[in-house]
Structure formats: C-alpha cells, structure tokens
Amino acid sequence: MDEELLELQRQFEFAQQVKSSVRLSDRNVVELVQKLQELRVIDFDLLHTVTGKEYITQEQLKNEIATEISKLGRVSVIDLADTIGVDLYHVEKQAQDVVLSDPGLMLVQGEIISQSYWDSIAEEINERLQECSQISVAELAGQLQVGSELVQSVLEPRLGTLVKARLEGGQLYTPAYVARVTAMVRGASRGIFVPSNLSALWAPLQQLVQQMNGSSGVAVENAFFQSIFNRLLKEEEMLGSLRAGTHWTPSVFAVAQKECVDSFFSQNSYIPYETMQKLGISQAVQFLQSRYPDGKPLSAVFIHSSMIEMLDSTTEDAIEQNSWIDSLSVLPASFTSQDANKILLLCPSVQSALKAEKALILAESFVISSGFIKGIYDQIEKEAEAFSIQASTASLIDHPSKSSESQESIPANTDKGSKKKKGKSASMKTATVETVPDDEEEARPKSKRNQKKGRDSSSSQKLDAKAGGKKESVKAQEGNNFIPPDGWVMKKIVDSVPEFEDEGMDNPDSILKHLADLMRPMLINSLKERRKKIFTENADRMKRLKDDLQKKLDESFLNMQLYEKALELFEDDQSTSAVLHRHLLRTTAATIADTLLHDLDILNKLKNGIEVGDSKAQDSVLLESSERMDLAKNLNGSLSRKALALVEALEGKRVDAFMTTFRDLAEESGLALKKLDKKLERTLLHAYRKDLISQVSTESDPVALLAKVVSLLYIKAHNKALQAPGRAIAAAISHLKDKLDESAYKTLTDCQKATVTLLALMSASTGEEHDCSADRILSKRELLESQMPVLRSLVLGDSQPQQS
C-alpha cells in the first residue's frame, strides 16, 4: 500500500515537471470554464477573486471564513475580504450565513466575534478585578471598542463563573468590595432614628468610599447603595418602613410617633393636623382614620365623637332658650371657623333645628335660634319704618333744594319751629276790605326780598341746564332712599345685642355682617310692601286732594282776576297803585299761593310714598315767607323752579307778575285755571255786590263799614271790585269825587278822617286808668256810629247816588 502511494507521488511529481506542448491563455481558460458551466459539467457557482485569476466556490469561501474566525476569535469582515481576496459583498453575505449557522458567533458592527473570544476577555477582566476591586463597564467598552450594553450582556451570564464579581449600576465589584460597602450601608442606616431621605445619606458614604479607593477609584452610584439597602431591608437586618423608595422611617421613630399621637388624642379627644406634621406624619387624615375609625376628620383637626356630644348639648340649650351661641367659644383654640361649621353639622340637635327651621348657622360658627332672630328683626323693622319715612322726607328736601340753590339765590328763613297760620276764606262770600291803618299793616311778618332778583336770564338758563343734567341721577336714587344701609342695620343689631360689638362692624366675616345680610332683604321686602300699600292708598287720596285744589283755585283765581281789573283805575296814581298792588299781593294773592304751595307739597309727599296725616278741612292756609320758600324747594325739578318764581313774585310789587308765575306753576302741576270773561265777570260782580250789601246791612263796626261802603260805590260807579287797604281809602274816595254829589262825597271824607283819628287815638292809647285818650276815643266812636245810617243810605237807600 505504501509502495503504491509512493509510486503515485512520483508519477504526479513527474507530470507536474513535464512541460506541456500546448499552453492555454487566461482567456482560453475562462472560456473553457464557461463552456463547462453551459454543459452543466460544473453545476455549482464559482466566485472570482479580486485579482481575477482565480475561481473559488462559495463553500470554500465559507470554510476560509470559519478558519479565520477560529484562528483569531474576533475578525472584521473588511479584514476577511482583504485576507481571502474576494469582494466584500460576497464576504459579508457568506459571513452572515456562517454566523447564523453557528450560535457561538455574533456579528457586531461589522465584526464577527466568537464566544471563545468573550471567554478570554472575561478571564482578563477577572484578573484585573482582583487588582483594583472595581471596574466600570463603560471603561471596558471603550477599551474593547464596543457598546456598553454589549459588554454588560456578555458579562452577565459569566458573572460568578469566569468573572468573580457583582455588576451594579454599570460597575463591576468584587465580593469583598461589596461586603465592605454593605457593612457601611448597614451601619449608617442603623444609626438613623428620625425619618430621613436616603439620598442625603448616600452622599457622605460616597465620599467615604472615594477616600477608601484612593484617586484611582471610580465613584459609586447611589443606585448601588440603594440596592444594598433594599436587600438588607428585605432580609430584615433593619426595621422600619420605606416610602417612595427614598423616605426611610425607622421603626423606633414610628413607635414613638404612635405613642405621642395616642397620648394627645386620649387626653384631648382631638388632635390638630399641625401637631401631626410636627411629628413627621404628612398624611395625617389617612393615618388617623386607620388608627381611630370612630373619629371624624375636620379641616384642621381630627376629633373624637365625644366632642360632638359635648357641643350638641350646648347648642341644644341655646336653641331651646331662643338664644345664640358661638361654637368657637366652647371649642379649643386649634379649631377654625370651618371646623366649627363641620362639627355643628354633625350635631343631631343642630341638624333637627335646621330641618325644622328653628335655627340658623351664620358666620360658620354661630348657631342662632329663629326666635332670637325674629325678636331682633321685629324691633329693627319698627325703626326701619321710621328710617324710611325720615329718609324719604329728607330726599324731598335735599334734592330739590340743591337744584334750586344752584339756580336761585333767594334768602329764606329755615326755622323749623315756624307754624302755619290760619286765615279767613278767600272766597267771594267772605271777602272783606281791610281797613287797618298803615302801622298795623306794616307790623305783619315780612319775608326778605330776593337780593339777586336782577340776575340776567342767560346765567339762569345755564343753571337750568346743569340742573336738568342731574335730574335722571336724582330720580335713580329716589327709589333706594328709603332702604336702610348695611351700617345702619348692623348698628341696630349692636344696640339690641351689645355682645356682638366686639365682632367689629368692618369685618366682612363677622356675625354682624351675616345678620345684616340676612335681615336687610327681609326689611327691604317689608318696606316695599308697606310703600306699595301706601302708594295704593295715596293714589285715591291724591285724586281727591287734586280735585279739591282745583275747586279752590277755580273760585279764588277768578276772584283774583276780578280784583286785578280794579287796579286799572289807579294807573295814573303811582303811589296809590303801588299800595293797592302790594295790598292785593299780601291778602288774596298770598292766600291762593299758600293754598297751592301747601297742597302741592302734600301731593309731592303722597307721590313719594310718605304718610301724611289727615288734616281737618280748612278754608285757607296762611304761610310765612320762609315756609313758602321751604315748600317750593321741596318740590322736584321744574316744579320747584316755578314755585320759587311764584314766591319771588309774591314778594314783589306787581300783581301781573304774580298772575303770570301762578299760571305757570298751575299749568306745570296739571291744574286748569279759568280765564275771566265778560259773563263770569258780571256774575261775580253781582254775587260780590250782593254779599257786600248783606254785610253792610248787618255791620256794627263803623271802621269796617266805611271800607265796605266804598267797595259798593266802586261797583256801582265803575263796575269794579276794589280791594283797598286802610291807607288807600282816602285815595279811593277821592277817585269817586266825580261820581258822587257833594253831600255824599263830604260824608265819605268826614267819616274817613274820623276813622283815621279814631285809629290813631287807639294806637296811641296806653290803656292805663289815668289815660285821658279814652274819652276822646269814645266820642269819636259815637260820632262814627251816628254816621252809620247815612253811610248805609249811600248804598242801600231808595235814591241812588247822583252822578255828575
């Protein structure tokens, strides 16, 4: 057998040495191979080498790749392509097949690495660990030029076998190093007696380990300490509780906590959450509810049910006695108003009282019985009615007076003690001619005249415009004038319950504010109902009053127009005309003006819902100048301005100015004034003459008789109704000189002189016993009385006075 092999070798060597007689070129060889492939003689794929002079099969390529890997353990695909001399594409493709077919190989970032390579690396790492105790995975990855994750995944299955170490937080530690650090963590943790954050504990341990390892040591991560701590806690080498992974509470502290909580709660039947926080218990409500299931959590404290029972008995007594109680006064200082409100709602007596509407909870902590509130409300309601009347009256005074003061500057006497005076009727049936001498007429109260009557109309119009701009705002406020404000209500509550004064009226959370907010709407509704009732009653009364006023003015104003016509007879006598104008303004004009102002004031009050007492019917009202001014200012808007103009005209010297202002005011008030026509004038003159004749027939006073006779003579002579004062009688008689015979004229002049003498003596008389003027007065009176039949005969006799 051996000899045969040797022979074959010799023949093969000879064949190789013998030179071929026919040589093939590279092209011929390529064509020959292609022909063999076409003929399916070569039925497998051939690969060219990078030189193009050699063919290699895919199987051979795989074998060469496997050989290189087994020889080196870690080889780059690029290096394989250079070594084998085949294109990189084919090498990568076959390398992937090789890796897939062998589980012990891995292709990582263009490199094929075998498990034997990693085993050798693991042995090297283990040797290095024995020298330095710890190695960073990142450092190993940098040295091996691979990723840290790959190194970690390769080392994990080899830990405890090829690598005697512990992998934690990207670090490899030897067992001795881990034991040393475990002892440090155990000692530091057992030295903690209060709740602590473990992160703060690891910082000094890191410094200690760094000093132990020296400058070459790698910093230890907190996760390494935390994992050791968790293992020790699991093995019960340390007692306590760990919350959120880092908050450590030693068992000794938890025991002390529970003892403190139990002691405080058992002694006081409550415990504030603030105390729990000081003890280090953050979730106080959950802790207390789990420990005391019968307790009740409030806003700031946790209470025992005995606290509810104690407060329940106290509030029950207050409700039964129709009183009130501030629960904060019987609860500890740690309770807030919210706590008081919650515990009150837990009291059975309060629950039943609230359901039966026997009590209310106000300001969160006050329990007030409904009977107590009703007692205060009834008292305040009476005072609120008086306040409403006073406020409504004041608004009538303030608002119009402000507007009128900006437009008029009429001085007025504002004495509140002045009273209305009653005068005689201004009707035609009782009209008389005043025969008072000059001194008596001037003694009558006079008002100050307007000091700024001459103000030009342009400034007056400007002031009217300003007043008109404020009209709407004044009307908007009138509706709320009668409602008492919060401050007034709170003051009345303090007057009823002085104990509430300490709460303070400016504190928005005080019991005063809450009571005022409760009672004020009730007061508003009550006052509105009352005003509604008053308005309903006042509407009918206003209608009756306005109808009565219209009737009064119809007769009085016609008489005034009748008397005004008589003044035309004295236009050529300025002095007498002024006296007659002044007299008519002070008598008849004043009477109808006072009637109008008085009734307009009552209508204004009724319109604004103010109660006005039912005054007895009276023929006329006589006012002083200051009273007229006050009534005019009390009216609203343009009505007030025209009333002030009427008062100003009444204090003037011309009747025609008065008549104009009177018509304006009556028209503004909605009253219709009749105009004196010829027919009405004849009717009034006839009635006036008839009434005067009746008075002359029955008159017993010679002084009064003279004036009435003169008035009758003017009706007969001029068809005019003359109203003349005593000092104008002489001038009136002189104007009749052309209308009477000499005897009648002489009788009138003699009686007039005797009357003036008599009145002068009576004025100068002192009334004493030794006064000698009494005889002269008596004689003069007897003289006048003797002339009374003669005077009557001038107007009542059969013969009429002769006219010239």
Automatic annotation (TrEMBL):
Which parts of this chain are annotated as the region Disordered?
398-482
Keywords, A to Z, come to: Coiled coil, Transferase, Ubl conjugation pathway
Q: Name one GO biological process term.
A: protein ufmylation
> InterPro entries, from UniProt?
Ufl1 (IPR018611), Ufl1-like_C (IPR056761), Ufl1_dom (IPR056580), Ufl1_N (IPR056579)
Domain (E3 UFM1-protein ligase 1-like): give its ranges.
547-676
Q: Which residues form the E3 UFM1-protein ligase 1-like N-terminal domain?
A: 4-288
Coiled coil (residue ranges): 532-566
The biased composition feature labelled Polar residues covers: 403-412
List the biased-composition ranges (Basic and acidic residues).
463-475
GO molecular function annotations of the record: UFM1 ligase activity
Look up keyword Repeat and say if it applies: no
The answer to whether keyword Coiled coil applies is yes
Q: Which residues form the E3 UFM1-protein ligase-like C-terminal domain?
A: 681-794
Any matching Pfam family:
E3_UFM1_ligase
The membrane-spanning stretches of this chain are none
The family classification in the record reads: Belongs to the UFL1 family.
Write down what this protein is called.
E3 UFM1-protein ligase 1 homolog
Q: Which organism is it from?
A: Brassica campestris
